[in-house]
Amino acid sequence: MTTAQLNPSDMRQGAIRRRAFKTRGSTVLGFIFLAIMLFPIYWMVNASLQPSGNTLSADFFPWNPSFAGYEKAIADQGKNLLTSLIIAMGTVVVTLLIAAPAAYALAQFKFRWISWALLAILIAQMIPGVVIANALYAAYNNLGLLNSIPGLILADASHAIPFAILIMRASMMSIPASIIEAARVDGAGQLRAFISIALPIAKNALITAGLFAFLFAWSDFLFALTLTTTDEIRPVTLGIYQYLGTQVSNWSAVMATAVLSSLPAIVLLVVAQKYIAAGATGGAVK
């Protein structure tokens, strides 16, 4: 009785074909999942271009697009979009001014209390936002910060600072101590070493922290709802929420507002995606 001998080249070709089949299958599944996740965004854009303003009778593709919804959205929500932009940019500035020096100190200084400080930061990060919002309302009412842009900036920054510290500390811990020591020997103080050495090296983490702080403030609804009681200061998230009750027959304006409010986040994520990837993994490998 004889046994068939398997040709090594045939075995290699079979393995190659199996890998190619798995790769094609994974690619197809990836496109399917991506289409499912992006479909709500597509339907939002499609509904914003419908001339009738009724999503129930909307076509799958806007064959006769109308920009009337965008005109109404800009007229009604343009001020709210500008308010959200000012709040988000202010939150980024406050967050980085506080979080960057704190992250540098926690990464480079060797004190016994640093582990306790990190634990406090983690606890602050885990506190539900509704608890902070209720506490801030009582404090803001006494300080006169209700219905003010500085008040919303401080509230959003309180949510973004702990996360920014953790992100930047992981990156600054990878800075070799010899570089800081060499700068100190050359006469640089701690502030000069922080500005001239630590910040440029941790640029990716700095951009990542700033971007997430912007997104936290831009998408905030809880603080906007709790800390504003008038129409003078109204972020776009709260504007959309109140828009739903007045534009039930004109969904194109509502969807157009949603599209306009999504554009800054989309643009920033596309432009800064390489910095986010590098900043999120900074400090993971030395």
UniProtKB/TrEMBL annotation:
GO terms for cellular component: plasma membrane. InterPro entries: BP-dep_ABC_trans_perm, MetI-like, MetI-like_sf. GO terms for biological process: transmembrane transport. The keyword Cell membrane applies. Residues 81-272 form the ABC transmembrane type-1 domain. Keywords: Cell membrane, Membrane, Transmembrane, Transmembrane helix, Transport. It is found in: Cell membrane. It comes from the Bacteria. Its main location: membrane. PROSITE patterns: ABC_TM1. The chain crosses the membrane at residues 27-45, 85-106, 113-140, 160-182, 194-218, 251-272. Gene3D superfamilies: MetI-like (1.10.3720.10). SUPFAM superfamilies: MetI-like (SSF161098). It is a multi-pass membrane protein. Belongs to the binding-protein-dependent transport system permease family. This is ABC transporter permease.
